Amino acid sequence: MSDVTMVRLPFRSRFREPMRCNVKLMTCRTEKMASPGDRFEAFGAVFEVTHVMRMRLGYVASDCFLQEGCVSYQDFLDLWGRIHPTKGFDPEQIVWAHCFKQVEVRP
Predict the structure, then answer these.
(1) How far from 69 is each of 2, 23, 60, 107, CA to CA, in Å?
(2) 6: burial class by Cβ within 10 Å (0-12, 13-18, 19+)?
(3) Buried b / exposed e across 17-32, counting CB within 10 Å, b at 16+?
(4) Residue ranges per domain, the chain?
């Protein structure tokens, strides 16, 4: 597996269970941080990026909050605001959606 690129994608601790239980399957970032096929480690597991696409943050908040590991639209808004306190939530902002799947659990 030497041709696999390992990337660094940090996550907040609140996402441990949603990621390990295959509930959180997406992370949106202001920059592209991985490409399809890249892998990353988080919470004792290895995940593989399946898709990377650009989308409006408003769409993510309204239609993808569950895939983001949030329980509601408002939960996503609150979380985004805490992560990005200066800019805050702008529904027209274009972000990079990184979709992923768990491929390995490490002991």
Answers:
(1) 31, 6, 11, 23
(2) exposed
(3) ebbeeeebbbbbeeee
(4) 13-105
Q: What span, in angstroms and rounded, lies between the C-alpha atoms of 70 and 8? A: 22
Q: Walk along the chain (107 residues) and give the pLDDT tens digit of each residue.
A: 468 899 999 999 999 999 999 999 999 999 999 999 999 999 999 999 999 999 999 999 999 999 999 999 999 999 999 999 999 999 999 999 999 999 998 76
The answer to whether 77 and 61 are in contact (CB under 8 A) is yes
CATH T-level assignment (fold) for domain 13-105: Sulfate adenylyltransferase (3.10.400)
Q: Say what the pTM is.
A: 0.92
